Amino acid sequence: MTIRWKTIGARSAALALGAAIALPGLTAHAASTYTAKDSDTFWKLSQQLNLPLQQLMDANPAIDPLNIYAGLKLVIPAAPAANKTMTAASKSAVQKTQAVTTVSGQSLAFSRALDVKATAYSAAAEENGKWGAVDYFGNPLKLGTIAVDPDVIPFGTKVYITGYDFSGLPAGGMTATASDAGGAIKGNRIDIFVPGSRSFVSGFGFQNVKVYVLE
């Protein structure tokens, strides 16, 4: 168990109504604006606009992900034309793609595998601070949510985790999404959300696991 006070840092700055934030790389057309709704989050917008979540985050370092509100003007800038030519490096990367087989027999393509130290956290207020039982983007915590160091595993990344031993998680392995962060989660560390009481989840302790970064 890790006490997971979410560290927003500069993102905690309040936004004035009508302030603009940059959402990069959506279209090759001229820049446009989008008026946020109360239900919008960076995660939902990345899915709706088909943009990498990390790209949105990197372009908006002063934005609090929990403070996207109705009336906020979001700027959708023009994007450069995509280079459709596959370089030798990209061909090599494709050729090196490997696959991991899940306990159900499904084959999942992955680009890299990491040996990391894992802890687990619950929805208890003592572990989540003032933000409550939500991830970094304001979405409710659920099985499959993990906290990461985004410099190691970018936000929005899908992963497959093996090597743990705990009754509160699927036996043999599980898929998860990097959508949370924590002050102690730096480098090759992950924190896995587990439904249940704080005392139950604390039984996970510290475990060495394998994380496969999925394609």
UniProtKB/TrEMBL annotation:
UniProt organism field: Cohnella cellulosilytica
Ranges where the LysM domain occurs: 32-76
Record's keyword terms, sorted: Signal
SMART domains linked to this entry: LysM
Gene3D superfamilies assigned: LysM domain, RlpA-like domain
Pfam families: 3D, LysM
Signal peptide: 1-30
Domain of life where this protein originates: Bacteria
Protein name: 3D domain-containing protein
